[in-house]
Structures are given as C-alpha cells and as structure tokens.
Amino acid sequence: MSDEIVLALTAGEPAGIGPELCLQLAAAQRDAGVVVIASQPLLEARAQLLGINVKLHLWQPGMMPKKGAGELSVLHVEGCASFQAGKLDVANSHYVLETLKVAANGCLAGDFDGMVTAPVHKGIINEAGIEFSGHTEFLQELCGVERVVMMLATEELRVALVTTHLPLKDVSAAVTPERITQVTRILNADLKKFFGIERPRILVTGLNPHAGEGGHLGREEIDVIEPALEKLRAEGMQLIGPLPADTLFTPHWLDDADAALAMYHDQGLPVLKFQGFGRAVNITLGLPIVRTSVDHGTALDLAGTGKADSGSLYTAIRVGGQMARSLKSANRKAPNKETSE
Predict the structure, then answer these.
(1) Residue 2's pLDDT is what?
(2) Which of 2, 58, 233, 235 lies at a 20 to 30 A Cα distance from 22?
(3) Tens digit of pLDDT for each residue in 85-138?
C-alpha cells in the first residue's frame, strides 16, 4: 500500500468561487496530490479571466498528480454548459452532480484516498428538477449507507450534528433514541479511526433552552436524549450531557472535550463558524470514504473578482489528507482476515 495520498477535488458550482479556489492551488507546491474534478474549459476560462498562469495536465487513474507551482492535474468532466462567473445556469446542474459521482466512485474504486468538495448551489440544482439537499445526503445515498454525520471542525473545536438540513419545526420529532444512538456511534468510531483519539470525550447538548430545565421547558432531554446516552455509556463511551447549549461552548467544558454533539444545525454551527469561519472544514462521517469540504458557500458576488479566500479549502485538503493517512494506517494495523483464519 503506497504512502502517497491522492485527493479528488470537485470544483463545485461553475458560477461560484469554486473553480478559482481550485486554480489558486497552483500558486505553490503541495504536500498532498490533488486532482481537480471539473470541466477543463471551465478552469481555462476562469484562469484567463483572473490572469492566473497555470498549466493543466489531464489525469488518469494510476498517474501521480502534479504538485509543482503553476501546475494542476485535472480529471475532465463533460457537460458544463456555461462558464460565466457570478451567473447561475440551471443547465449546469447535472454536470455539477456528475463531478461528485466521479469523485466518490473514484474513492470507492481506490483511485483516490479521499474527496474534497468546493461549494455547490443547492437552489439551482433543485430548479433543474433534481431533489438535492446537500453534499452530505447525496453522498450518503451514493455510497449506500444508512446514516451519515455532519461534523465541522477547526483546530480548536469539533461540532457534529444529530439532525442537519431540516426546518426547525421538524427537529424535535427527528431527535429520536435511534437517531441519537446511530449518530453518536458513528462520531465515536470515526474520531478513533480518522483522528487517532483512543477514547473520545464527547459533550452532548440538550434540545431545549437550559436542557429542558428539569422538564419545565420540554421533556426531550428526560424522555429521549438521556436514556439514549445511558445505553451508549454502557458500551464504554465517554458522553457528558445533555448540557445546556448556551453554556456547553465555554472553556469550562470544551477544554477537556474532543467533540461536541449538537441536536440541530443552527444550535452548534453558528458557534463554530464565529470561532473559525474561513479556516474550518466540513467533514462527513459514516461514509466508507474520506470526504471534507469548505465551510462556506458559492459566493457568487466574489466569483471572478480574484478576492476569494482559499483558507478553508487549504484546511479541507490538509484535514482530508490527515484523515486518509489515518485510515491507511488503521488498515495496515488491522489483522488480515484471510491469514488469521
């Protein structure tokens, strides 16, 4: 098994900043091998618009990606209908999803050690008549797994979610013992597998203000969350909570924690993004592949201006590479079933 890491990088929405973030990678040497999954003419058009001097090399499985300054390896995907920065085109929607399929299938086939995604525009994909709620759910279906977990992370903080892209009115019904159990098991296992944490210490929020205040502000903590956590603690997990979300994200609790588990999207992610927006990474746990992403959207207003900040993309690539190396290391240490029987 080679120690070289090769990551697939999807360029995202053609009208957004994704293509130019990919092109910015060519400005310097890179530690990890990166293959941009995109329309080559799209990248050429954006490079010309921004005056970026880059040589694009067509890549095929088995080749080592170019790492030198001024060079990028590209796996060309057909179907990009228009290249105009800042102007969405519904005709590009199928192409965008095809880049994700190419990257994920390449990971499943072993051509890539992981995938990194630039932002897509959910609205324009749905306008094309395609049901799409986000990368996380799309990759869950493509990889055929029952449950995945969205986790955002900075150097100082990791926040995972029990529920993701749901209207707030639907969250309480979705916070079930089964869902909490599945999500927490995935989070605990992948903190071990991808981050080398032998026995993760996980903080868990309540759902209601003040974690329900003994049932006076809601009973989900008493009836749903705490019973699920007790069963998981019996499996040996270190779970602290349910804690009030307004005090969980303080040094008193976070200093000794490896991750926080929030019940819904806007309970945990505003804290993380305030703490580290632009240098955070979105990670999908529970997949059979490594997947990381930027922590921001398509930024149509910045597309084509040369002002897009690539900090989050570099973080996503660095973390994706670390996770891929950890997975390779874990696979090496795992006993060979055929030889051990």
Answers:
(1) 57
(2) 2
(3) 999 999 999 999 999 999 999 999 999 999 999 999 999 999 999 999 889 889
Q: Which residues are annotated as a binding site?
A: 135-136, 165, 210, 265, 273, 282, 291
275 vs 340 pLDDT, higher one: 275
Q: Count H helices and E strands in the chain, helices first.
A: 14, 12
Tens of pLDDT, residue by residue over 264-291, are 999 999 999 998 887 889 999 999 999 9
Give binding residues for a divalent metal cation as ranges: 165, 210, 265
Rg (CA), the chain: 21
* Structure token pair of residue 3: 């120690």
Domains defined along the chain, listed by start: 1-145+287-341 (3.40.718.10), 148-277 (3.40.718.10)
From the list 275, 300, 289, 26, the residue with the least C-alpha distance to 135 is: 289
Question: Is omega for the bond preceding 242 within 30 degrees of 0, making it cis?
Answer: yes
Contact 122, 237 (CB under 8 A): no
Kindly report the number of other CB atoms within 10 A of residue 275's CB atom. 15
Inter-helix orientation angle 177-195/226-233, to 10°: 40
Q: In DSSP terms, which residues pair with 2 in a beta bridge?
A: none
Give the residue numbers of the binding site for substrate.
Answer: 135-136, 273, 282, 291
